[in-house]
Amino acid sequence: MVPDPTWQAKRIRIKEKKREERKARNAAARKVLVDELGEEAAVAKIKELAIVHAQWHRDKRQRLLEDKAHFIELSAANASRPVPLPIICMDFQFSPLMTDKETRSLGQQMSQLYGAAWRHKNPLPVSVVGLTPGPMQDVMDRYPGFPWEGVDIRPTSLLETYPRDKVLYLSADADEEIEGLEDDHVYVIGAFVDRNRHKNCTNDWAVKNGVRTVRLPIQKGWMTASSVLTVNQCHAYLKALHDGMRGREAFEAVVPPRKRGLGRKKPKGKRKGGDREKEAAKKAENTPCEGVVPGEGGQTETPAETETETPAETETVTETVQTAGDADGSALPPVDSPLPKRPSCDPERETEAEAEAE
Prior knowledge:
11 helices; alpha/beta; Alpha/beta knot; 6 strands; 49% helix
């Protein structure tokens, strides 16, 4: 199949962007070394680091090649084992129900699933059934190396490929909950992304065809932010159960924090706007009144200058207040009427003033 030009152009743009970012990081690191060690010592240090870096990449590539070869060998020899390992099967029979966006999303999940499958220290065989020519096949052909080595990919249906009594179909609507994986059984994951549009789809098909249905051990309330697991997360969950993890341990090892609701919690030390407002109000209550110097026994500051109003300004203010009251239709108190007494910030001074008035 000819790759999509738009998709290829996007890949090229992403690679160029990463290349520019890498150049910028290297230039910044080189500048730091030159400033600390000098030009000659910095060049020698960079050469030394380049040799170490290249050796690290060679060792990593060798480990990955060995892991992949082990996965391919294990998958090929599984059928001849006295007790075959459990197989994780991806069923593509529901792929026609997906939209184009959901089809592309499933392709990404399958790519992540394959990468995690052969990198695992105790890998399990992976198979694909029901993948027929169509939009889903076109999307999968875009991924490098597909059909992938070590994965048994067949266009036949699930029941044409495996015995009915060996098949366990994963469904969130199933009544039975699994605690671990049984040898010589096939655990089937419905390979389709539906965004919860097709409820009970896999469970209804399995019940109709006499296939045993099971669900992952996820208790109610564990997934507070999202109730949906991706295909690659279901695969990782099954591997965690096969490795001996149980209950909450397996759940937390597979499900990312954002789906467990941990990403929505307020970070420690970060305050919301309401918290700041409460602190400001509390601070205002504890702030001393204007004109009082804290720690000086309530002594007041003497203002440097006292502003006085001229008679003309007083008359203007009086006329303005009266005009506003007439236009409003409401009766305003006379300007010369005494204003309410403002409480003093110093109780002792207030008591002395009352005694003098008497």
